[in-house]
């Protein structure tokens, strides 16, 4: 048996649920084939069970070895008039007489069933059940066109025949027995509901639970495409892995649906994310298409659920299925304190959408808890409503994820490729303790080549040394089994930072978003490992790339933490990046895009509400030069409020004393020293050519004394001028520039305290 699943008698068993009679067709959603097939066999089994014992013996004799004296070697009784090959399912089964001689050994049929004489009725019925499954599988073998499937059917056929001969129980032999992956699909979906929806009120959560059940039910009756069909559709996928899972599915889930003498397992209980990933994209499309087609047949109470909520549910689930960092696939996944898991189990019958009936809603086992919401937040109901329109329920396909627009984020193409399995990311490294893994070593050599080509100024030996150094790891990007890029890094957990050593993508794969997606994966990897700072020495060519990945020259890690740890490169610039553990970096651009769409829709809605058109302003034609913003007709209706509007002090003495106090405070501030007096020409060459309206605190004091400041606006304008002038003349890294910023902040605190502008 190749792979890890096998069938007794050592037969390689991979296959397709192809054209077998009443067996389900490949790649569809309909489970009706299997249902009809199994129903037909069940009827036949019931008929046989109620037939007289001699009739039962006759049937089993065909599958039993000869017990006649003289140690006859004949394995099964064969009729003198064999049935046509292949046998037709619509034919009545042949009936034989116990006295009929065997075509092979000439002993009678009775001689083949002597061992059954004292067997209980119950055991007889069990064996008869197997016999009918054998006949059915025999038909399947003959009708099946796919070679692999044929082989599985044939192996199962042989297994069941052997069971009748030996009066044993059918056990599919495999190196591994179910479950094949943990957590199971069912558990993962359960976790997903917890993870994303536990904050919802119980009624809405109930809706989600229903969607989850519906989805799991669909998977349990889903017909996987054959490995050869899949190879054609997705040649880059892990064909061998799929074949193994396909075999398991056929043996443990699919065939037992119509041959009930084989133990049956639910797909969602014995398979995990790997199988789900290989079917999800196609399945999602087909389910939505099916829902669209059945739209008019849907029970009214299910319409919104299926047409509106289901597409959204699938989109959200898709994100988690293909994301590398989704917590729902962790075995340690624990429901948050907001609620325990809601066990979602599927029924045993496959239902199409239109067959769904409303069930009385059951109370959920846990108290609803609500997320903390900020006052002024947009109501959740409104967001949900807007979200539903964004995903365009009219098309029933949800948001398009495969077409890239000109406005796509840089990493979008890479993210989609990863989801489709075209590219993979692995953190790898050399180890002195473990046996070398050939594949990993090949990748490390590949990485060394990519780095050497892309970083020609780095000595090749140096790159090799670090890539193969067990203290360094490399996040590698794999396409078609080949390394096409990577980031080599060294973690210093005790110093709370990681050093990025090399980062490169092979020439013909650059500027496709791989570099960005690599860095995002590295960020998520570090968040998981509790390191929230990256440091790297970037050469002049790399600074641009690192800046775009959120790195800056403003290093947040204290020097004492990295000095002596990080490798220093001559002529390179130290850059750092501080990670925010609440950001899912690989999904970040998608989230931002969605938020943008929501805001756009909300603005559109608001605009639709305020559809009043005012005549244009004519006052400017009449010579008016300036008008207050609030006097523009309609401006207040939009929700606009004058910013910074505060109390105008009407009493001149009161205004004077308030301004005096503020000016005093400003002058005594530690950062006021550069602005105390007018700038001296000798100290600042060319100052007065650059700054046309100079101002300083001494001049302001004089103006205050002379009662020049008759309104707060005049005072504020002069103060503001001091700061603006300073920033215009001085570079941002200068001491003066920083003083201006700090003093400005202080000044605004003071005027707010005085009530001159709104807080
Ligand atoms: N300078 C400025 N910007 C750069 C850049 C550079 N050297 N290299 C890439 N970018 C930009 C891209 O144009 C893109 O910008 P955009 O999103 O505004 O269009 C962004 O950075 C990321 O592009 P992406 O496609 O995600 O990156 P990539 O797959 O091309 O990989 C490198 C980026 C740097 C890894 C790749 O160009 C490379 O291997 N370069 C040679 C080796 C190197 O210099 N490594 C860095 C130091 S170790």
From TrEMBL:
<dbReference type="GO" id="GO:0060173">
    <property type="term" value="P:limb development"/>
</dbReference>
<keyword id="KW-0804">Transcription</keyword>
<dbReference type="Pfam" id="PF00439">
    <property type="entry name" value="Bromodomain"/>
</dbReference>
<feature type="compositionally biased region" description="Low complexity">
    <location>
        <begin position="1"/>
        <end position="24"/>
    </location>
</feature>
<feature type="binding site">
    <location>
        <begin position="510"/>
        <end position="516"/>
    </location>
    <ligand>
        <name>acetyl-CoA</name>
    </ligand>
</feature>
<dbReference type="InterPro" id="IPR000182">
    <property type="entry name" value="GNAT_dom"/>
</dbReference>
<feature type="active site" description="Proton donor/acceptor">
    <location>
        <position position="499"/>
    </location>
</feature>
<feature type="domain" description="Bromo">
    <location>
        <begin position="667"/>
        <end position="737"/>
    </location>
</feature>
<dbReference type="InterPro" id="IPR018359">
    <property type="entry name" value="Bromodomain_CS"/>
</dbReference>
<keyword id="KW-0103">Bromodomain</keyword>
<dbReference type="GO" id="GO:0040029">
    <property type="term" value="P:epigenetic regulation of gene expression"/>
</dbReference>
<keyword id="KW-0539">Nucleus</keyword>
<dbReference type="InterPro" id="IPR016376">
    <property type="entry name" value="GCN5/PCAF"/>
</dbReference>
<keyword id="KW-0012">Acyltransferase</keyword>
<dbReference type="InterPro" id="IPR037800">
    <property type="entry name" value="GCN5"/>
</dbReference>
<dbReference type="GO" id="GO:0005813">
    <property type="term" value="C:centrosome"/>
</dbReference>
<keyword id="KW-0206">Cytoskeleton</keyword>
<feature type="binding site">
    <location>
        <begin position="541"/>
        <end position="544"/>
    </location>
    <ligand>
        <name>acetyl-CoA</name>
    </ligand>
</feature>
<dbReference type="GO" id="GO:0061035">
    <property type="term" value="P:regulation of cartilage development"/>
</dbReference>
<feature type="binding site">
    <location>
        <begin position="503"/>
        <end position="505"/>
    </location>
    <ligand>
        <name>acetyl-CoA</name>
    </ligand>
</feature>
<dbReference type="GO" id="GO:1903010">
    <property type="term" value="P:regulation of bone development"/>
</dbReference>
<feature type="domain" description="N-acetyltransferase">
    <location>
        <begin position="432"/>
        <end position="580"/>
    </location>
</feature>
<keyword id="KW-0963">Cytoplasm</keyword>
<dbReference type="InterPro" id="IPR036427">
    <property type="entry name" value="Bromodomain-like_sf"/>
</dbReference>
<dbReference type="GO" id="GO:0060349">
    <property type="term" value="P:bone morphogenesis"/>
</dbReference>
<dbReference type="InterPro" id="IPR016181">
    <property type="entry name" value="Acyl_CoA_acyltransferase"/>
</dbReference>
<dbReference type="Pfam" id="PF00583">
    <property type="entry name" value="Acetyltransf_1"/>
</dbReference>
<dbReference type="GO" id="GO:0045944">
    <property type="term" value="P:positive regulation of transcription by RNA polymerase II"/>
</dbReference>
<dbReference type="GO" id="GO:0005634">
    <property type="term" value="C:nucleus"/>
</dbReference>
<keyword id="KW-0808">Transferase</keyword>
<dbReference type="GO" id="GO:0140672">
    <property type="term" value="C:ATAC complex"/>
</dbReference>
<dbReference type="InterPro" id="IPR009464">
    <property type="entry name" value="PCAF_N"/>
</dbReference>
<dbReference type="GO" id="GO:0043992">
    <property type="term" value="F:histone H3K9 acetyltransferase activity"/>
</dbReference>
<dbReference type="InterPro" id="IPR001487">
    <property type="entry name" value="Bromodomain"/>
</dbReference>
<protein>
    <recommendedName>
        <fullName>histone acetyltransferase</fullName>
        <ecNumber>2.3.1.48</ecNumber>
    </recommendedName>
</protein>
<comment type="similarity">
    <text>Belongs to the acetyltransferase family. GCN5 subfamily.</text>
</comment>
<dbReference type="Pfam" id="PF06466">
    <property type="entry name" value="PCAF_N"/>
</dbReference>
<feature type="region of interest" description="Disordered">
    <location>
        <begin position="1"/>
        <end position="35"/>
    </location>
</feature>
<feature type="region of interest" description="Disordered">
    <location>
        <begin position="76"/>
        <end position="98"/>
    </location>
</feature>
<keyword id="KW-0805">Transcription regulation</keyword>
């Amino acid at each position: 048996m190749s792979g890890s699943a096998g069938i007794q008698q050592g037969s390689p068993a991979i296959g397709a649920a192809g054209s077998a009679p009443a067996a389900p067709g490949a790649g569809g959603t309909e489970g009706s084939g299997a249902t009809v097939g199994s129903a037909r066999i069940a009827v036949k089994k019931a008929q046989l069970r109620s037939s007289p014992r001699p009739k039962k013996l006759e049937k089993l004799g065909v599958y039993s070895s000869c017990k006649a004296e003289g140690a006859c070697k004949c394995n099964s009784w064969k009729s003198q008039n064999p049935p046509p090959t292949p046998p037709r399912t619509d034919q009545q089964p042949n009936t034989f007489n116990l006295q009929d001689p065997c075509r092979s050994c000439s002993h009678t049929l009775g001689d083949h069933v002597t061992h059954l004489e004292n067997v209980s009725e119950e055991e007889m019925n069990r064996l008869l059940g197997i016999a009918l499954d054998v006949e059915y599988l025999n038909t399947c073998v003959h009708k099946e066109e796919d070679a692999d499937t044929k082989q599985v059917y044939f192996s199962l056929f042989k297994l069941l025949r052997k069971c009748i001969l030996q009066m044993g129980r059918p056990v599919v032999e495999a190196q591994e027995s179910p479950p094949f992956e943990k957590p199971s699909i069912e558990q993962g979906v359960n976790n997903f509901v917890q993870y994303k929806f536990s904050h919802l009120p119980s009624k809405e959560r109930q809706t989600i639970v229903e969607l989850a059940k519906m989805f799991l039910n669909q998977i349990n009756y889903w017909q996987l495409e054959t490995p050869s069909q899949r190879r054609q559709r997705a040649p880059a996928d892990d064909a061998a892995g799929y074949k193994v899972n396909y075999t398991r599915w056929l043996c443990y889930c699919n065939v037992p649906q119509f041959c009930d003498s084989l133990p049956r397992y639910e797909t969602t209980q014995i398979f995990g994310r790997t199988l789900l990933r290989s079917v999800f994209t196609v399945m999602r499309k087909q389910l939505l298409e099916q829902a669209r087609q059945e739209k008019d047949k849907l029970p009214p109470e299910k319409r919104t659920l299926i047409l509106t909520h289901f597409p959204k549910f699938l989109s959200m689930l898709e994100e988690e299925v293909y994301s590398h960092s989704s917590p729902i696939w962790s075995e340690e996944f624990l429901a948050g304190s907001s609620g325990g898991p809601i066990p979602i189990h599927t029924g045993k019958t496959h239902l199409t959408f239109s067959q769904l009936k409303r069930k009385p809603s059951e109370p959920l086992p846990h108290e609803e808890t609500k997320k903390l919401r900020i006052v002024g937040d947009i109501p959740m109901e409104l967001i949900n409503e807007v979200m539903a329109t964004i995903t365009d329920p009219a098309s029933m396909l949800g948001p398009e994820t495969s077409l890239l627009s000109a406005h796509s984020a840089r990493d979008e193409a890479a993210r989609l490729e990863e989801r489709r399995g075209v590219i993979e990311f692995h953190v790898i490294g050399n180890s002195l303790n473990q046996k070398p893994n050939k594949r990993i070593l090949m990748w490390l050599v590949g990485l060394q080549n990519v780095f050497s080509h892309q970083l020609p100024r780095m000595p090749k030996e140096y790159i090799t040394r670090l890539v193969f150094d067990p203290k360094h790891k490399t996040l590698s990007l794999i396409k078609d089994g080949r390394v096409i890029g990577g980031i080599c890094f060294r973690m210093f957990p005790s110093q709370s930072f990681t050093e990025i050593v090399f980062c490169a993508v092979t020439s013909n794969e650059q500027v496709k978003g791989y570099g960005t997606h690599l860095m995002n994966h590295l960020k998520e990897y570090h968040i998981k490992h509790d390191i929230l700072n990256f440091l790297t020495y970037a050469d002049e060519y790399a600074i641009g790339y690192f800046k775009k990945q959120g790195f800056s020259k403003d290093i947040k890690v204290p020097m004492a933490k990295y000095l002596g740890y990080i490798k220093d490169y001559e002529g390179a610039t130290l850059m750092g990046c501080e990670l925010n553990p609440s950001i899912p970096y690989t999904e970040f651009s998608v989230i931002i895009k969605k938020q943008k769409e929501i805001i756009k829709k909300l603005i559109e809605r608001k605009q639709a509400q305020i559809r009043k058109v005012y005549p244009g302003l004519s006052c400017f034609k009449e010579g008016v030069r300036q008008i207050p913003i609030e006097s523009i007709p309609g401006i207040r209706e939009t929700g606009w409020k004058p910013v910074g509007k505060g109390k105008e002090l009407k009493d001149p003495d009161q205004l004077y004393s308030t301004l005096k106090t503020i000016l005093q405070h400003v002058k005594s501030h530690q950062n006021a020293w550069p602005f105390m007096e007018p700038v001296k020409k000798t100290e600042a060459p060319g100052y007065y050519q650059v700054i046309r309206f100079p101002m300083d605190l001494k001049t302001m004091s004089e103006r205050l004394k002379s009662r020049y400041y008759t309104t707060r606006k005049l005072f504020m304008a002069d103060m503001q001028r001091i700061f603006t002038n300073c920033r215009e003349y001085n570079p941002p890294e200068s001491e003066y520039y920083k003083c201006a910023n700090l003093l400005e902040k202080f000044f605004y605190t003071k005027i707010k305290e005085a009530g001159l502008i709104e807080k």
